[in-house]
Amino acid sequence: MTRLSVAQSVLYDAPRTIYFYATSYCNSNCSYCIFRNSNLEMKREHLPLDLLKKVVKESNLLKRTSWVIQGGEIGEHPQAAQIAEFLHLNGHFVTLLTNAIHIPSSIRMLPFVDAITISFDGRRHDIVRGAPGNTESIFEYIKQVREKAINPVDLTLQMTLGPWNTNLDEVIYVKELADEHHVGLRINVASDTGVLGNGNYTQNIEKLAKIEVYFESEGENFTARYLREYVKHLKGERLPCVSTSIYSTILQDGRVLLCQGLDTEEATIGNLHDNRFDDIWNWAMDTRKELRTCNKCGLSCQLMGDIKFDETFYAPES
Ligand SMILES: C[S@@+](CC[C@H](N)C(=O)[O-])C[C@H]1O[C@@H](n2cnc3c(N)ncnc32)[C@H](O)[C@@H]1O
Ligand code: SF4
Ligand code: SF4
């Protein structure tokens, strides 16, 4: 089998990661996110644990997936710890994506998670997120995770860049804090489209390019490459999108999405209240192939998928 044919077979058989929005409730009010608690148009609901169990048990395709569990804020889900426990005990790699506002609910999930990503957007974090005291709770949470975790947990800060914090100074500030606390740093660029999109964010290409050069000089090649690809995306050129074939998204109301970058209606391929995950995934096979040339979004979860896939498998057709 050539590298390319390995890549093709890996592409369409099963999703590698599920982005699971277990709840649309949130205890924060981030101006750039559709789940912000002041958004009165957002229907608030939780995906029941029983439905999750049924979906996973009925599925052959979800046997080896990793799960990124989030919301809204997953700690607001009354069964948050049981969700993490169920996935963990079924052998899935579980990443908790949290704002760390309510420390006890995130700590309850600790025995069942392999990695934790905590959102932190820089000096103006509490203001942009409408969450006074959040910066303090993030670093307290990191301290408690270190004290209480029985197994090693991979800790990462995620900085989402919007016009309010896209400058090198801010990024260096967050990077230095991440280094001081011995946690990783992941960069994500705010999007005005897709599942989370809320507004019109015009990104400054020059500032992003400077940030890219900084990460390259720090040896953070993966982040540098993400930003390079993002700049290419802004200029209308980039790699084909494979993320719809290696990821899937499940929303709190049971909808399954092709990706997080398309508008939610357009991305919806089925609902777990009505159909099995495997059927929904397989029905959308042709659409997933067509979307390889989409180029609509530059979300980190999607672009990084392309980069990881590209570095692992991609070989140009000769
Ligand atoms: C939707 S939140 C859910 C988890 C948790 N509530 C949190 O804030 O970490 C997951 C990540 O999405 C990011 N996010 C929110 N709105 C976004 C947008 N419009 N574009 C890109 N990322 C966004 C947040 O900054 C956060 O890091
Ligand atoms: S980014 Fe996270 S914390 Fe902020 S409103 Fe969205 S879901 Fe809530
Ligand atoms: S580029 Fe890929 S992830 Fe982004 S909107 Fe298009 S299909 Fe979705």
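qc> The beta strands are 17-21, 66-70, 94-98, 115-119, 154-161, 184-189, 247-250, 255-257, 268-271.
qc> done
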